[in-house]
User: What shape does this take?
Amino acid sequence: MYVPVALVTIATRFWVMHMRKCLIAGNWKLNGDHALCDQFASTVFPTDSSFDIVICPPATLLQSMQQLIKKHSSCLRLGGQDVSVESQGAFTGEISAKMLHEAGAQYGIIGHSERRAYFAETNEKVAIKMAQLLAANVSPIVCVGESRAARDQQQTLAVIEAQLSPIKAVLQQQALSCSQIVIGYEPLWAVGSDQPASPEQAQQVHQFIRESMADVPDAEALRIIYGGSVTADNSAALLAMPDIDGALVGGAALNIDSFLGLLPVV
Ligand code: PEP
Assistant: This one.
């Protein structure tokens, strides 16, 4: 079949090059309201098949966002920003993986650097959260990343390996597949700093993560996304890297125009 070159879109080229579907996830953190949900859900995004777009609003907005997505037949998918290590019981304030799933979340961010720094989230806890999400049919977006000090001391890969180690152990022990999970590489010094990693810096760590995960079932299907000051100005160069399968976006996901601007071109 003849396909005019002009119709081979950048997004399609991404898919052919990477063999993994691109994932762009917006993390709203402690921001957003019903009006922002409505704005995102009523926007017609450039594609609903060549890449996945996930929005992670605060937990209280998940259900209304889910209803708005249905109302507007939006291609958006939903994600939670965290999950409990517990599945039920006397744990005031916690939200279980099953609850996230019931609220419409298909993804759940875990191990974000802010949760690690302010809420004592250890590598081991992150692995338990991953198992909880997988058991509830929610795909974990597992964040890893090194501090500026660790990078300066050439400890980046050692930090990443320590963060991945319990994750790999759970996946291997429970014979779980890499196709269900996403790793988010988010260097702490790049998050919210307007100082993104260069495409080459990010690619080096993504390649390391891919090699480190090679023994886990379906390793070739593992999506590794980059986060840290992604904007319209740098997303194309980052996404062009062979081991960068998408982006995790904070600040630029709070505004519909800046978010649209960083999506792969179709
Ligand atoms: C984040 O917090 O996950 C993030 C990537 O934030 P920002 O895009 O603002 O750097």
Summary: Residues 146 and 156 are 6 Å apart (CA to CA).
